[in-house]
Each structure stands twice: as C-alpha cells, then as structure tokens.
Amino acid sequence: MSVSVIIIMGAKGRMGSMIYGLAKDNPDFSVAALVERADLVPGLQNMGVKVAADLDAILPVPGAVVIDFTSPEVSMNSVRTALKHKAGAVIGTTGLSKDQVAELHEAAKTIPLLWAPNMSVGVNVLLKILPELVRLLGPAYDMEMVEIHHNKKKDAPSGTALKLAQCLAEARGWDYDDVKKHCRDGIIGPRPKDELGVQTLRGGDVVGDHTVYFLGPGERIEITHRAHSRETFAQGALRAAKWLSGQKAGRLYGMADVLL
Q: Residues 115-166: pLDDT tens digits?
C-alpha cells in the first residue's frame, strides 16, 4: 500500500493537532511538515518533523497533499501556495465567501483540490439522502434546521448547516439565498411556504449538532447528526488526503467523491 505524504497547516490548532496525532502513528501516512504561526513554531520543534511558519518554505515536496482547517484567509493563501508549487490540497475551513469558493473552483482546474465544510462520513451520507426525503414528502412539509456548536466557533451558521440547507433548497428547486431565514425577531407574520430557517445556538464545548426538521400536517420528522469528537473530522480529512493523492486536477472535489 502506498504511503500518502501530508503537510498539516495550523498544527497547534484543535484540528491540526488532532490530524497530526492520528497520522503520526498511521503507516499509511508520512507527515512531511507542520506549519504554524511564527510565535507558535517553538512549541512544535520537538515533534521530530520539519516545522515552518510559511508553507512556501516547505513546498515543493513530491506528491504532498496540504491539509488546512485554519481560517478563510490562511486557507486561501495555502491554496495559492499549493497552486504555485503544483501540490494537492484538502481544505476543511468553513466561512468562505462566494468569491473564495469561486477561487477554489478555478484553482482546482490546475491542482488536485478538495473542499468540504464537514468531512464526517455521517454528514456526507445525510447529504445524499436528504434530497430523496424532500422529493418523497413533497411541498406540504416545511423545512427548518437548528445547529449547535461550541462557544469558540467564529462563523454562523456553520458551514455544515449551510451545506445541508443548500442541499434542501436545491432539492426543492429553490435558490437558497432567496429563501434562507437565519434570524426571526418581532412580529414576523405567518411563515411563507418558500422559506428555509436555519437557527444558530452557541455554547459550551459542543463539537457540532445539526438537526433537520420536516414539519408537515399532523406530524414531523427530525434527523439529527451529532459529532461526539473532532476525531471524526480528522479521520475524514486523512481519508480525503489519501484519496486525493491519486487524483488529477480538473474540478473541485468534495467528500461525496471520496465516498463513492
């Protein structure tokens, strides 16, 4: 079995450290380098792995895939650097703007590139079955969603909630931006039929809960995904990196491609 070479961005962060912890003892992976902010680099120098504050100082590394779960700005810089050196990249960062997503699509024409706001197997299976539920239940069922995350999460709604909601809207034949309702307050009147509410809760150390509601006449269906640990996302990222190392450029990949 071939060994996948990876470079981990944000190696001192919650996700970066989890990915490194899983990869370092896994014979399927070789960690070529860890990248962190300059002030955090000293804390990584006893890891026995090459460490740098700049991805450009590490690349090129033959066959390497960069894994980045940092922030939109840092992740986009990682993609630009990977593009410069023709390296592959797995991006798990949420909160990207439309322009940044468009830039990912453009970069994916040149380098193997995968972006997924949630890399858990369960969420990506959910994305596959939700359209069928929308079709079978029909327009009589209103669709809503609630997501809960820890009190340190910076973006709202979460990237996973947006992906799920966009999936629901597309299945109903809607443009998500036309029907989304991220906040309700005051005398709002009756709920329009062409509306999709996504409500955000923040608190404690919740890794990530997402509940989709189908609310119909006389009944409702609730589908909940709960992430018990960030390890599920880290395992997904490693699975994605291993898969991506054997792919060619051409289009922006997602976790659905990995799970096919």
A: 998 888 899 899 999 999 999 999 999 999 999 999 999 999 999 999 999 9
Question: What pLDDT does residue 257 have?
Answer: 93
Q: Evaluate whether 193 touches 112 at the Cβ level (below 8 Å).
A: no
**Would you tell me which CATH number, out of the four given (3.40.50.410, 3.40.50.720, 2.60.40.1120, 3.40.50.300), belongs to the domain 4-119+230-259?**
3.40.50.720
Q: What CATH homologous superfamily does 121-226 map to?
A: Dihydrodipicolinate Reductase; domain 2 (3.30.360.10)
Half-sphere exposure (CA, 13 Å, Cβ side) for 97? 5
Beta bridge partners of 58: none
Catalytic residue IDs: 149, 153
Q: Give the whole-angstrom CA distance, residue 6 versus residue 31.
A: 5
- CB neighbour list of residue 54: distance below 8 Å, 6 or more residues apart: 35
**For the chain, domain boundaries:** 4-119+230-259, 121-226
Q: How many residues does the chain have?
A: 260
Residue 9 token pair: 């961005």
Burial of 217 (0-12, 13-18, 19+ CB in 10 A): exposed
Q: Which helix (H) or strand (E) holds 224?
A: strand 219-226
pLDDT mean over 184-209: 97
Residue 62 pLDDT > 90: yes
pLDDT reported for residue 2: 81
* Distance of alpha carbon 164 from alpha carbon 233, whole angstroms: 16
If you ran DSSP here, which 8-state letter would residue 111 be given? S
